[in-house]
Amino acid sequence: xxxxxxxxxxxxxxxxxxxxxxxxxxxxxxxxxxxxxxxxxxxxxxxxxxxxxxxxxxxxxxxxxxxxxxxxxxxxxxxxxxxxxxxxxxxxxxxxxxxxxxxxxxxxxxxxxxxxxxxxxxxxxxxxxxxxxxxxxxxxxxxxxxxxxxxxxxxxxxxxxxxxxxxxxxxxxxxxxxxxxxxxxxxxxxxxxxxxxxxxxxxxxxxxxxxxxxxxxxxxxxxxxxxxxxxxxxxx
Length: 236
Ligand SMILES: [Zn+2]
Description:
By secondary structure, this protein is an alpha/beta fold. It has a single domain (33-235), classed as Carbonic anhydrase (Beta-carbonic Anhydrase, Chain A). Helix content is 42%, strand content 15%. It has helices at residues 2-29, 47-51, 77-88, 103-109, 118-123, 128-137, 144-163, 167-174, 225-228, and strands at 35-40, 58-63, 93-99, 179-185, 192-196, 201-204. The radius of gyration is 20 Å and the shape is globular. The N and C termini lie far apart (51 Å). The model has no long low-confidence stretch (mean pLDDT 94). Zinc ion binds at residues 40, 42, 65, 99, 102-104. The site of zinc ion (ZN) has 7 residues, from helix 4.
């Protein structure tokens, strides 16, 4: 803990005084984060660090395996964070961020190792669809490293699908007011892959690209456009 305590002391003594105005502004005006990011709790995957953002810029929710349980009547921390970010804070972008060398994905590959961690095992059931996809749609006898990587990438896509089951997200998407992103952070190289919904696969994020690949671009999508056409949000 020594390092952490020293860090607090440094923050209070040297950092905060220079940032006090910013913090006061954030209290006066309230937070207006640009995005909700759901990332793995892994200590090496810090969303603020990867995106070089500061206080007030990201609404962050982290858990083992960057999982979004599908919507259910049972209350949960992830569901509450999503609802609050979308409805109260009005975020327009939601990111699911997976990463390489993910321990949760290793647990998924080796359920026998989770016998002494029943809560982790139960939590990871929200990723079983990713396991099944890798089992059935990828070649048999894959190198374990490739299998682990495929699993982590497919897991991001599965969690994006779960995200759409949340009423606040479903409504935001129908109104064309939300954009969904699937990211994958490569610890070894610092590279970021982004899921391109149009191509159905991950592509490298390069600053040279004109448009950042998105999992789902904002577009009004209603099943009864002849009725929705008369509603105000359709014109936004
Ligand atoms: Zn992880």
